[in-house]
Amino acid sequence: MSLSIRNQLAGTVTTVTVGEAMATVKVRLAGGQEITAAVTAEAVKELGIIPGSAVKALVKATEVALATAPVANLSIRNQLTGTVAEVTAGPAMAAVKVNVSGGGLTAAVTADAVAALGLSAGSSVVALIKSTEISLATA
């Protein structure tokens, strides 16, 4: 199956915590960074997600926020450090490609945000992704 979601990060499940309706799944990316996905308990069961499972974390570009440094006191669980590879800016929106350890991400942000943060190729950034915005796919 082909997907329009550009952000597809490969990793291995390290921990699964299942609740009544939802579960949290921690995934170690190929580069060593860890992310947390919040998915339904039913999805965990149907996909057979257990520690050691190979998965892909899928994130729409519109769900990736950028900061120029780690952010403290924030409910967003996923803060992936990386370096801007490319900025393609239009008058209103921009696509910012970020190299993170274990893969690449694209963030769709406003052109104003790119200017305010001073983003350009080589800039250090932190990609922020809510755990509820990460979907998981199994092989």
What is the spatial order of strands in the main beta sheet? 3-2-1-4-10
Estimated structural class: mainly beta
Gross geometry: elongated
Helix content: 10-25%
Order of helices and strands: EEEHEEEEEHEE
Main sheet attributes: strand count, strand direction, barrel closure: 5 strands, antiparallel
Low-confidence stretches: none
The DSSP helix count reads 2
User: Separation of termini?
Assistant: 11 Å
As a whole number of angstroms, the C-alpha radius of gyration is 15 Å
Which helices and strands appear, and what pairs or packs with what?
Layout: E1 7-18, E2 22-29, E3 34-40, H1 41-47, E4 54-59, E5 65-67, E6 78-89, E7 93-100, E8 103-110, H2 111-117, E9 124-129, E10 135-138
Antiparallel strand pairs: 1-2, 1-4, 2-3, 4-10, 5-9, 6-7, 6-9, 7-8
Task: Describe what you observe in this structure.
The protein has helices at 41-47, 111-117, and strands spanning 7-18, 22-29, 34-40, 54-59, 65-67, 78-89, 93-100, 103-110, 124-129, 135-138. 10% of the residues lie in helices and 53% in strands. It is mainly beta and 139 residues long. Strand 1 and strand 2 (22-29) form a beta hairpin.
Keywords:
139 residues, mainly beta, 5-stranded antiparallel sheet, 10% helix, elongated
In short:
The protein has 139 residues and is mainly beta. It is built from two helices and ten strands. It has helices at 41-47, 111-117; strands at residues 7-18, 22-29, 34-40, 54-59, 65-67, 78-89, 93-100, 103-110, 124-129, 135-138.
